[in-house]
């Protein structure tokens, strides 16, 4: 039986929402190599699929993987270049938790050959589907917007100092989308007082944003990295907080609606 790598919902609007770190499945062949703690997949971007469920109502496409980022990180380049030089980074096939602790048992980290197998079996199918959906939307509408959704614990000393702002918009320093789209999204964030925010701060956009964001070719990409604290408990079992969700979702909707209102011809 063929393993399901991702789920793709094809929408009618020129917007694709990608949630590359929501998967929680660990293949049976991987589990014996991991430390026991890893089986809880603590570094998941928890609950983003239900949080962004409204995107379908807006006509957006949605692509989500099935497997955990511990199998392979879909938001890293295939050649495994660090996303943020000079800072601690997790790899294409992560060997550490976000705390810096070892993910694998001694001597069990993936070999180069195993990394290549994961690239072929998990990474490339997701990216092939993502690229094809962007091409479909661009052909239908003349342009496409890619929204890359992420979330993370607000304090992770191994990865960054202090606490992150609640909402971290990334546009690769303005290179992954049109200036007018970046400005429109920044205006939505500036127009509310409920959440702290920054644009192109610690998280400027990972591989997906940087690789697919080609504004001159009609594809505009942005990343939103949100603190877990904006919508859920940051300690196990990492449950959604309905009160916080009710505060956050209207802002997420406003951001996606801004993507849909924007046009390169405006």
What does this structure look like?
The protein has 266 residues and is of the alpha/beta class. The chain has one domain: 3-Layer(aba) Sandwich (Aminopeptidase). It has five helices and seven strands. Strands 1-3-2-4-7-5-6 form a seven-stranded mixed beta sheet, with helices on both faces. α3 (179-190) links the parallel β5 (167-170) and β6 (197-199). α3 runs antiparallel to α5 (242-261). The longest helix is centred in the middle third of the chain and has 30 residues, at 112-141. It is globular and about 55 Å long. The termini are far apart. The model has no long low-confidence stretch (mean pLDDT 95).
